[in-house]
Design goal:
This protein is an all-alpha fold and 133 residues long. 80% of the residues lie in helices and 0% in strands.
Length: 133
């Protein structure tokens, strides 16, 4: 599913349109735009499989970097790492296998995983600033 959406975003020009909209909202600061990609990737990957989130966000991130003339590497890394940090829901990772056997509920993941997810996202954005910008 993710590869079809990714190809569609690129072929239709929607990735470029979303990139231009982000630049219009956040300005042309490479760090701020990369942080937006990071947070968006994290949020999206909490709602679907991590790999699909990367496939959807990566074309947008690449187009965004090219639109402002920035290096593509931090944007792609922000996409991949942001998608990997999703632990606030059971939808994105292998935790779904332990929910029934251990008695965990969806709200348990939201409560405890949400805290971990929030802290990890803040630390990831700080690491972006330190290492790339």
């Amino acid at each position: 599913a993710g590869t079809g959406v990714s190809a569609g975003l690129q072929a239709s020009g929607a990735a470029d349109m979303l990139a231009n909209a982000c630049v219009g909202i956040a300005g042309d600061s490479p760090f701020m735009l990369c942080a937006i990609v990071f947070v968006f990737s994290t949020i999206l990957s909490n709602l679907m499989a991590n790999t699909n989130a990367v496939l959807i966000v990566a074309p947008i991130a690449i187009s965004l970097a090219q639109t402002i003339g920035a290096d593509v590497l931090p944007f792609v890394l922000a996409t991949a790492v942001g998608a990997g940090l999703s632990v606030a829901t059971i939808l994105s990772n292998a935790s779904v296998t332990i929910t029934a056997s251990a008695g965990y509920r969806f709200k348990d993941f939201m409560a405890y995983g949400g805290i971990v997810n929030g802290v990890a996202t803040v630390m990831g954005v700080i690491a972006l600033r330190i290492f790339f910008f």
